[in-house]
């Protein structure tokens, strides 16, 4: 499955709103708060994004 890498929240919003992410996986390589993740989950449903993952560099275990 194809995965789109988003380097910023703005690139995510722009691509989602233009329906470029429909049916694809998305991997975010920028820091994301829990609040923003919640909003992105709404976009995931609205724009039919298959899966959104986040870089662990910003969320160490």
TrEMBL record:
Protein name per the record: Exonuclease V subunit gamma
The organism's place on the tree of life at top rank: Bacteria
Organism expressing this protein natively: Vibrio chaetopteri
């Amino acid at each position: 499955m194809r995965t789109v890498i988003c380097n910023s929240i703005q690139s995510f919003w722009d691509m989602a709103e233009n329906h470029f992410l429909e049916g694809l996986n998305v991997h975010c390589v920028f820091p994301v708060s829990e609040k923003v993740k919640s909003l992105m989950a709404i976009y995931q449903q609205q724009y039919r994004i298959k899966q959104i993952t986040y870089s662990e560099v910003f969320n160490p275990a």
